[in-house]
Amino acid sequence: MRIGFLIIGLYSLITPLEAQKSAEVAKTPPMGWNSWNCFRANIDESKVKAIADAMVSSGMKDAGYQYIVIDDGWMTNGRDINGHIIVDATKFPNGIKPLADYIHGLGLKFGIYSAPGCFTCLKLMGSLGSEQKDANDYASWGVDFLKYDHCNYPSTSVEAKLVPLDSCRAAYELMRKCLENTRRQIVFSVHDKCTIGAVVNNEASLPWIKTVANMHRTSNDIRNNWESMISNLETTSNLWEYAGPGYWNDPDMLEVGNTGNESTSRSNSLQNMNLNEYRTHFSMWCIVAAPLITGNDLRSMTPEIIEILTNKELIAINQDPLGKQGKRIRDDGDTEVWKKELSNDQLVVALLNKSNEPVNISVNWKELGVKGTFKIRDLWTHKDLGKFRNSFTGKNIPGHGTMVILSKKNRIY
Ligand code: GAL
Question: Does the active-site annotation cover 149?
């Protein structure tokens, strides 16, 4: 009996500390840029520095973007005699630290990529068996963010599909621990293919992964087309109870403005998204409190793309400190209504038009769970639309477009 009390006592001492640890970083969804969507493995020091410069000069840093993350392809497939991973010297001739220093010098943060198996998805060196060594190297280089992917675990992609959940869990817990051992604040972003199926079909894996990761991929790789974006949104839509400060569901990186050579729509002949679709993509990632990790070439953005990615009113709802993932409250097939509760008594509603034609979408206060007359603001036109009682109708919402409106909740004007 006494032992029982002692264990419960220790547990209650440990739990708040553990919970606190994972909430120290990523208290709101991480915002940044990652090299994969646009460049695949075609990255190098000067390109990444220029992207970091563009994050500052375009106004993205001011809008809240912080992390510059290099994805797969920065390493070779070897280790030196002391077991340290060998950086690809043709791409990063000065190693990784000077790049991290440069990025920090701009007031930004730096992220890197690895995998728990022998090899990354590009069959380059993974962290298996060298987890602490890699974590220590990351910390010494000044890494602030680790994307930990899951291909070729333990050593082949076939094995990766057969690995039991427990073994995946151990691999991710191990790296989490190694990162913690470095005492550096590092966002841990995981793409755990063991649990993707579980995420979609059964949410059993989420409670544990939430304690290990700061963000967790909930879908397969996004492509720059409407179908892929909506499908990734769908897999994340019912996971709202698992998101909150320190841990976020990740429907994958943004494709907004991704016209890079590696933009993958071409391979399946679907169209790249148009501006209305990009606005929907950005709106919905903000509503579901997804990490806002851009994947386009920041050096060559059109004014329209900058305007979407730096929409401060939408970013504010994504970054709201309450950290609630928005929920779909009505699904009429071609049209949907979503709501996200914010701190400061605010409520944001997305009217999503999945059809190809312009439509009107109405929402009434009863389905939102509010009463009274509310002042409504449009977060894309940045205009106050007036006072509305009992319901609101968004008019002429373009095909594949989304209207996002904001009001104070529980306030009668
Ligand atoms: C995939 C991952 C992509 C990218 C790629 C690198 O598994 O989903 O986002 O990281 O690996 O090889």
Answer: yes
Q: Is the CB of 247 under 6 A from ligand 1?
A: no
3-state secondary structure of 156: coil
Distance 45 CA to ligand 1 centre (A): 20
The encoded tokens of residue 376 equal: 């409504």
The whole-model pTM stands at 0.92
Kindly tell me if the per-residue pLDDT of 11 is higher than 60.
no
Neighbours of 410 (CB within 10 A): 11
Lowest-confidence segment of 110-124, 241-255, 267-281 by average pLDDT: 267-281
SS3 205: helix
Ligand 1, atom 11: nearest CA belongs to which residue? 121
Q: What is the pLDDT of residues 183-195, one digit of tens each?
A: 999 999 998 766 6
> Is the shortest distance between the CB of 124 and ligand 1 below 6 Å?
no
Pick the catalytic residue from 134, 149, 192, 252. 149
Q: What is the pLDDT of residues 246-275, one digit of tens each?
A: 999 999 999 999 987 554 444 556 789 999
What gap in Å lies between CA 391 and CA 396, rounded to an integer? 16
C-alpha distances out from residue 374 to 70, 168, 347, 407, 413, Å: 45, 48, 11, 6, 6
Nearest atom in ligand 1 to the alpha carbon of residue 193 is: 7
Q: Distance (Å, rounded) from C-alpha 289 to C-alpha 315?
A: 10
Q: What per-residue string of b and e applies to 137-159 under the rule 16 or more CB within 10 Å gives b?
A: bbbebbbbbbbbbbbbbbeeeee
